[in-house]
Amino acid sequence: MLRGHKTSAMTVGFFTLGTLFTLPGLAYAQSFTDVPADHPVYAAAEFLKAKGIIAGYADGTFKPDKGVIRAEAIKIIIAPLTDPVEVAKVLSSPYSDVKPADWFIGYVEVARQNAIIDGPPNKTAFNGGSPVLKAEFIKMLEVANGANPLETLSEIRLPLSPDVADPEQWFYPYMRYAIASSMTMIGGDGMLHPDRQLTRGDCALILHRYLMYKEGRRTQALLSEAENEIIIILGALEGNDIVNAELASARGLLAARGAHLSKPDEPIVQGALKISEAFRALVRAYRSGLSQDYESVAKLAGDAWNLSARAKELAPNLAGIADQVQKIAKGMADSARQLMEQPAQ
């Protein structure tokens, strides 16, 4: 840690899109008796119902808390992308546990043939009755919709949360892309929960967010998430919690990169990306300070200062946050230089 160095509180609301990206809200009549307008799943459930992607039960409910099995998840993902006539033509499957009479056989076979799920010889059983896990659902959704999570943002191989920390884990690239496309974010416990069993409400939220992202309508959500991560970074550094600062800086960078992939020509998005990169540099500088690598501290703090200057050029309305980043960066660099000038003990 740099002696005498403290971060300072920052104003919020700095990553805000202008009217160019203000979209009118969609008005829905309540379709499900158990999903009123103030329910977290309301907008997602109504949107997906209007698109014909999901339907409720005969009693008028949606059952957002009901668990989803793998067979149901495959249908949710595949049905909007395929011709039901072609799905109905499927009469056999190479999976040992998928029988001709199973209602989901067509969706499973379409998924297998399009490499959305692994088939024999890698996987001989589909396990359609097992609960679908978050990372599984996200992977299937991304691949089915033509995303390339193995390549997109592949240069970012940073721990994202305590439970998504190893880039070599099979689910890492899919969770990485899920953050960048606004499908998921950390919970109150700081975890991403890739192994959580999903409910109907969970699936609706993830699918809705991804479809909105594909339409370029989640940019503000991503910028807001990047801003939230900056707040976490500041709090973590105040508490000398470098681990959580590093995790937040990686997630914030991903959120900003995701917004940039969606709206690369929008100045506020360009500026927000530079600010997120600046915070990543500040966190790296702080880590170098803990190792007493003061030369790296000075260099990384300088990088943060320059990135913030570029942010102001791209989006002048970010001058307030950029100035505060530069103040922190200067303090870190000055402290590092003073320590380097001290005679060896």
Describe the 3D structure.
This protein is mainly alpha-helical and 345 residues long. It has 2 domains: 24-214, no CATH class; 220-341. 51% of the residues lie in helices and 0% in strands. It contains 12 helices and no strands. It has helices spanning 42-50, 70-78, 84-88, 105-113, 134-144, 172-180, 200-214, 219-238, 242-262, 267-290, 294-314, 319-341. Helix 5 (134-144) crosses helix 6 (172-180) and helix 9 packs antiparallel against helix 10. The two termini are 18 Å apart. 48% of the residues are buried. Residues 19-25 have low confidence and may be disordered.
Short description:
With 345 residues, this protein is mainly alpha-helical. It has helices at 42-50, 70-78, 84-88, 105-113, 134-144, 172-180, 200-214, 219-238, 242-262, 267-290, 294-314, 319-341. It is built from twelve helices and no strands.
Tally of individual domains: 2
Bin the strand percentage: under 5%
Mean pLDDT: 93
Q: Distance N terminus to C terminus?
A: 18 Å
The major sheet is characterized as: none
Q: Estimate the helix proportion, in percent.
A: 40-55%
SSE diagram, text form:
Blueprint: H1 42-50, H2 70-78, H3 84-88, H4 105-113, H5 134-144, H6 172-180, H7 200-214, H8 219-238, H9 242-262, H10 267-290, H11 294-314, H12 319-341
Helix pairs in contact: 1-7, 2-4, 2-5, 5-6, 6-9, 8-9, 8-10, 9-10, 10-11, 10-12, 11-12
Keywords:
2 domains; mainly alpha; 51% helix; 345 residues; 0% strand; 12 helices
